[in-house]
Structure formats: structure tokens, C-alpha cells
Amino acid sequence: RSPGLCAAVHYLVRGQLGWLGLTIACAVPGYAAQILSVLWFREDGRPPSCWLLVLHLLQLGLWKRYWDVLRMAAKTGGSARAGEVLAQHGDACVLRLLEALLQTLPHLLLQAYVVVAVEPAGFVPGVSAGLSLLSLAWALVSYSHFACLLRPGHLCPPAAAILCLLLWRTGMLGTRVLALVLFARLYSFWVFAVAGVHWLLMSFWLVAQQTDIVAQPCRWRLFNCLVGAVYIFCYVNVRPGPSKYRVTVFYAVSTQDILYSTWM
Questions:
Q1: What is the largest CA-CA distance in the chain?
Q2: How far is CA 245 from CA 104, 196, 205, 236, 248, in A?
Q3: By CB neighbour count within 10 A (0-12 exposed, 13-18 middle, 19+ buried), where does 225 fall?
Q4: The pTM is what?
Q5: Domain range summary for the chain, segments of one domain joined by +
Q6: Closest listed residue to residue 146, CA positions, set 74, 213, 79, 96
Q7: What does the pLDDT average to over 14-28?
Q8: Strand, helix or coil at 48?
């Protein structure tokens, strides 16, 4: 929460109420992950208490989940209830990824635009954007790490592999966000046309893959549209099995975006 809080205080002190309002607005979508966390607590047979609801209202519900995972792992000693620990860890990773995509990513885009177009020498917006980038990259790495643990026969990846994955995610997200911000700085609202074309292509591509994560047709369409929007910035594997061909298609479409932007 520190990047958003520091940026909000920075804009409040400087009297930039417009950027302050946008910074606060970026925090609102994060409550979707908090609401989903409360619902999952209820489905797990743990009716949320008033204290738990207050934590989620303060957007600290996911910290409570991570604390529960650490406490459970310490009690079990890594053997008796390893499956339950993994399930609780998976819930926390998925919710953290959702929160990062809904809250951290818009905040990153906003602060990056401020640094590029409004306040190039702004230290606080720059640090806020950098911390948001690392937070988003780590959320993606945590999700990938959990997905790797779920595969049968796969061991926990070493620290060097996780570090390389973090560097890859940070570089991919950083360059993508910087390209979009620079394009918005030069061509203003035309950036929405480029992002819209990419979103449509990715959404139709997901439909063609027949992803069966969501069974109900209405929610299935919504899921494909949401993941298609995520694919504007990064690739998230939502299907089991090898993903090298899907990653190739993703980067091919991303290259097409760059060529389209250059042509415009």
C-alpha cells in the first residue's frame, strides 16, 4: 500500500487534486479481490468476524491470508497438512494477482504517465511507479510459482530460476508500460485504439482456444474479455500444458502492435 499512499500524500501536499483523485480511484478496484477473499472464507466454513471484515475494508485481507499460510506451515512442519497449506497458498496467490491487475497496474500506468508527461523530475511518482512495477511482477511470479507446484512431478524451482523469472516479468512489464505511456504522450487518445485492437485480438484468440476454466457461458465470455485486457500488458497462462506456442502468438501480436503504432 506504500506506493499509493506516498503518491496520494505527495499530490495532496502539492495541491494537485486532479492527480490525487485519480490515484485514490486506482485503489477502488482492489476491493474486488477483498470481497472475493471474504466470500472464499465463508465458503471454506470460516464465517468472517468483524475484525476480519475490518482488515478487508482496510485492504489488508490478503496479508491475513499470507499470515495464516505461514502459521499453518509452521504448525504442520511441512508434512501432515501440506495439501491444505498449498491450497491456502494458492488462494492467496490468485487473489494477490487479481488485486495487482485491478489496482497496482492502473496505479503503475498513472504514475508512469505523470513521470513522463507531467512531472519528469518527480521523485515520489517515479519511486511509486517503480515499486508498483516490482509488486506487479512479483504477483505474476508468485502465481507462476504456485502453478508450477500444482503440476505432478514438478519440484519447487530454485531461487535463481525465480529471480530470472522476476527479472523477465519486470522487463516485459516495464517496456510495455513505457511504450504505452510514451505513445499516449505523443498521440493522446489514439493509444486507446491500439490497446482496443490488441484487446479484441486477444479476446477472440482466447475464445478460439476454448478455455474451460469457467463453465457458465456468460461468465466464460466475461473471463475471456478480462484476460484479453490483461494480455495488453503481459501473458498469463490460463490453460494446462506446454505454453511455448501460446507465448509465441502473444509476442507476435505484441510486435504487430508496435508496428501499428509506428505506422500511425
A1: 60
A2: 28, 23, 13, 13, 5
A3: middle
A4: 0.86
A5: 3-261
A6: 96
A7: 92
A8: coil
